[in-house]
Design goal:
- The chain is mostly helical.
- It is 56% helix and 0% strand.
- It has two domains: 3-56, no CATH class; 70-131.
- Helix 4 crosses helix 6 (96-131) and helix 5 packs antiparallel against helix 6 (96-131).
Length: 164
């Protein structure tokens, strides 16, 4: 069972999930099996874990990624931006060598337009998200032009009922 499904199942059954690190190996110690060691560890840390669970009650953790179809956005930018359209029109009647330099200008203008749109979109989505969130953590922001990554689905962390 993958981590996301196990989190959802635990959340559905208990109403709360306390995020833990995976890949923790508990070895048996002299006179105690591994499951006894885990049970003793959980008993010793019960109050700490209960306090953590209480801080997550009624909350969920969401992983948000905004993914672009960069080619489609670039194409829309090319058709809407008068500077880029002008460069393309001028390029049309130029000799091959000169057209190359115009193409470089078009590509630079498209790249700049994509970066501007990405910055604008980031600020807009950030405002929308932070308006309904208690806390926000921003990971490294990827610049446009890179290939799409996998989409993270929302993971419940606390009690059921609220989603933001």
């Amino acid at each position: 069972m993958d981590a996301r499904r196990s989190d959802r199942r635990a959340w559905a059954e208990t109403g709360s999930v306390l995020p833990m690190t995976f890949d923790c190996i508990i070895r048996p110690v002299t006179g105690h099996a591994a499951d006894e060691t885990v049970a003793a560890w959980l008993q010793a840390e019960y109050d700490n874990y209960r306090a953590e669970l209480n801080t997550f009650a009624g909350k969920v953790e969401l992983g948000v990624q905004v993914l672009w179809q960069t080619d489609a956005i670039a194409e829309a930018l090319v058709t809407k931006d008068p500077e880029i359209r002008q460069l393309q029109q001028e390029m049309g009647g130029k000799p091959k060598g000169m057209a190359y330099f115009y193409q470089q200008k078009v590509e630079k203008a498209v790249k700049q337009g994509l970066e501007t749109k990405a910055d604008d979109d980031f600020r807009r989505y950030y405002r929308l998200i932070t308006a309904g969130a208690e806390d926000v953590h921003v990971n490294k922001v990827k610049r446009p032009g890179r290939r799409q990554a996998d989409v993270d689905e929302p993971l419940p962390v606390g009690g059921q009922g609220q989603s933001g």
